[in-house]
Amino acid sequence: MLPPRMKVGIITGTGTYVLPGLEGGSREPVATRFGEALVMQGRVGEVDVLHISRHGEGHTHLSSQVTHRANIAALNELGADCVLAVTVCGAVDPAVPLGSLIVFDDLHFLANRLGDGSLCTFYDEPGDALRGHWIYEDPFSAEARRVLLEACADSGLEARDGGCYGHVDGPRFNTRAEIRSLAQAGVTAVSQTAGPETVLCGEAELPYALLGYATDYANGVQDEPTPVPELLRLIEASKESFARVLGAALPKLPGRRFAPTGTMYRFEQ
User: Which percentage of the chain shows pLDDT scores above 70?
Assistant: First the structure.
């Protein structure tokens, strides 16, 4: 009997609404108890891919409207073995060059809230048999991070190994005072969507890694703000970098073991 094919969830954000090289793909709604998620299912080489565009084609959903719980629940129910996500982001660390990549290894998401203000958790019903606490040292999968770093190197793209991802509420950008406080907390770069994904994948025991592309300096990081045309140019340029890295990462996945990050302590087990 042939071993089951590797299934990987790919989540893309602003600027990347389709996944290059996805064969036989069809975008279909997947029903979950948190609503429907649109998932493009197809193949890239020997890997079955489950692609979700956070914002939808045409950027239908702003960051505050992304249906995170439905998205991650759908990937889990469809049998994803791991999740690789990408995001454009604003650099908080002035040492981060614009147009460069970051493979994050830490998370700043103190609010732990979804866009509608509700807590970021799957377990919102008392007595849920799966309820519990996600206990971890590092929020991102070490093995999935390693795949992204290797894929960056194979693609000829330098990537920072490690950095703290800061989740901020959208859709507005942040003030200088807010960015100063995040810098003091050690945040490397910010965006408005990946915090809930990290937490929900942790609760679902789905190994998750996040690749960032710096498109601008956050407010007050530099003496002069990044011009909006330059921000837009770099968002467009991010598509090629993400496509190259993901294209190099997917062939590396079969045969690797992706253990859940940390421990999901459940009271019924």
Answer: 98
